[in-house]
Amino acid sequence: MENTPASNFLQTIISDDLASGKVTEIVTRFPPEPNGYLHIGHAKSICVNFGLAEANGGRCNLRFDDTNPEKESQEFIESIQQDVRWLGFTWDGEVRFASSYFQQFYEWAVYLVEQGKAYVCDLNAEQAREYRGTLKEPGRNSPYRDRPVAENLDLLARMKAGEFGEGERVLRARIDMASPNMNMRDPILYRIRKMPHHQTGTEWAIYPTYDFAHGQEDAIEGITHSICTLEFEDHRPLYDWFLDNLPVPSRPRQYEFGRLNPSYTITSKRKLKQLVDEAVVAGWDDPRMPTVSGMRRRGYTPAAIRKFCDMIGTTRSDGVVDVAMLEFAIREDLNANAPRAMAVLKPLKVVLTDYPEDKTEMLAAPNHPTREDLGQRQLPFTREVYIDAEDFREEANKKYKRLVLGKRVRLRNAYVIEADAVVKNDAGEIVEVHAHTIPNTIGENPEDGVKPKGVIQWVSASAGKRAEIRLYDRLFNHEAPDRGDNDFMAHINPESLQIVNNAWIEPSLLEALPEQGFQFEREGYFVADRYDHSSEMPVFNKTIGLRDTWND
RNA sequence: UGGGGUGUCGCCAAGCGGCAAGGCACCGGGUUUUGAUCCCGGCAUUCGCAGGUUCGAAUCCUGCCACCCCAGCCA
Fold first, then answer.
1. d(CA A181, C1' B3) / Å
2. Tell me, what's the pLDDT at A100?
3. Measured between alpha carbons, how far is residue A270 from residues A36, A69, A403, A482 in Å?
4. A40-55 and A302-312 helices cross at what angle (nearest 10)?
5. Are strands A524-528 and A539-545 parallel, antiparallel or unpaired?
6. Is residue A101 part of an annotated ligand binding site?
7. Which of A169, A269, A331, A377 is catalytic?
8. pLDDT, tens digit (0-9, with 9 covering 90-100), for A315-352
9. What is its EC number (predicted)?
């Protein structure tokens, strides 16, 4: 049951195609446009495409759908590859580029013109919109629709040669201006763009549109199942039209699934960019961003993200997935694999008055409660230790399971102590607690039978080290920040980041490597920052808190 | 009657004519040197609504309703 491969409508189609002999091998592809960073929605698409190929002994290509130089760049090409690899997937062969098929696309465009199935149209953008009609009214034929083939050929060649300016002419398919499907109303195949392309330089003055490129890219690569999201469903008839009217080498089929919409987050590239541009976050890889690089810096793991994608399934229905599911997947993975350590976020000094000033005991502590293979580390125990200010009260009701004046508590992996007195400053704030240890309580309960009320984390004041801890929380405090006419900028959680400069960490944490994750006991999961962490200046990001069912 | 989709527990999601899986969340209880984990138990007489077919329907038919996508020379 645990390892049952995700069964969904796509897997059913694939199984049927394999069984019927329609295909002998499954070939999918992940086709991002290099115009931004990958986000959680792309992660799902990656899991679906690579996952299906993997589960069926097939292959999956990574192909950049780089048909619009205006918005694309090499920076994105690199970050996307890095993200896919980080998620744990390996694409088949070399990375592919739609741009490497440009010559073939052009020849096919000429072919369509020769067949009388495409024509050069001189309407400008505004006129074209008028001629296109509306959702409820049919469009009208372009006055250039019946241009002679020879003239079309000549004009197309000159478009390619750069003789015309941007927007002056386009190449369109001759299909049906009265189609109820807007995509079939003589769609544009080529537009003029006098701009260098990141892969082809200044070789081309015209660039194919998504519609005229995607299916052919799939056909060239021998893609069997071209999987995309629901909004492309209306494009499928056009996708098929090109494949039916062109001498393509193979016949891919397009299938669509529902986009992922996690609650409390946005996945619109435009809006994410706005967050970056307006400095609401520190960048595309800010730990609060739903980008793959942001989640990575936050401490989410590839395994957790993949588990989450398995959990939510792949269907054709649209919905909002509770981020609690993502958080569950993160906690599940980290709980099983992250070494434990202790850190105190809000230090309150506890002086163990019975403990010698010059004494240091090294106490062995397991790195994980159930996984012995994770080993153990040494915790220096000294007369002065820090505990979290939240873990001490002068008085409290019986539900409070921490240190209370006159009562006992267990210092995790160390002694049981009993609080004797508090030291306050002029403002009446508690600045220090005096306590004493209960003898022989390492790994044992007190001999007098008076058990501690609870267990709290601590760090030696003299042997511990200072650290910066960045506490991250949800970026939005609204379940659907950009639904309907919500202004997502108005739903930003003002407390999505709180920086703790004077946290105290156990010395073993100085050995943490960037991107290494830990559970700081009783606090949550934290990761050493990918860029800012060092043993000289430790910086940890809060990945996610522990599940908290504490009432009252 | 513009076209294309989707509607099963608060959320995700199985099911495809034989009498509602599972996960998340939530609520109880147990274990526990993490108020974590783990363990046990609870959680849709009902499948958008209304009719119909059938011995029998979430699954078939008909009609409604709701929501999503499409009028970029974006993808």
1. 5
2. 98
3. 9, 17, 50, 12
4. 80
5. antiparallel
6. no
7. A269
8. 999 989 999 999 999 999 999 999 999 999 999 999 99
9. 6.1.1.18
* Spatial contact of A336 and A369, defined as CB atoms under 8 Å apart: no
Evaluate whether A236 touches A253 at the Cβ level (below 8 Å).
Answer: no
A269 catalytic residue (yes or no): yes
pLDDT value of position A478: 92
Q: Which nucleotide is nearest to A132 (CA to C1')?
A: B71
| Residue A259 marked ligand-binding | yes
A402 is catalytic: no
- Alpha helix stretches (DSSP H) within A133-227: 149-160, 210-221
- A369 CA to B31 C1' distance (Å): 14
The helix (H) or strand (E) run that includes residue A330 is helix A323-337
A89: alpha, beta or left? (left if phi > 0; alpha if psi -120 to 50): beta
The DSSP bridge partners found for residue A388 are: A347
Question: In the complex, which nucleotide's C1' lies nearest to the CA atom of residue A325?
Answer: B24
Spans of chain A, pLDDT less than 70: 1-6, 552
Separation of A6 CA and B54 C1' (Å): 34
Bases of strand B lying below 7 A from some protein CB? 2-8, 10-15, 22-27, 33-38, 67-75
* CA–C1' gap, A545 and B36, in angstroms: 10
Residue A312 — φ and ψ, nearest 5°? -80, -15
Domains detected in chain A: 9-262 (3.40.50.620), 269-337+468-505+512-544 (1.10.1160.10), 340-464 (2.40.240.10)
Give SS3 for A308.
Answer: helix
Is A122 flagged in the annotation as binding? Answer: no
Residue A542 falls in the annotated catalytic set? no
Question: Which one from A117, A145, A193, A259 is the annotated catalytic residue?
Answer: A259
Partners of A255 in the β-ladder: A227
String of DSSP letters for A417-473: EEEEEEEE-TTS-EEEEEEEEPTT-TTS--TTS---S-EE-EEETTT-EEEEEEEE-
pLDDT in tens, A383-420: 999 999 999 999 999 899 999 999 999 999 999 999 99
Helix (H) or strand (E) holding A176: none
* A533 carries a ligand binding annotation: no
Contact A518, A363 (CB under 8 A): no
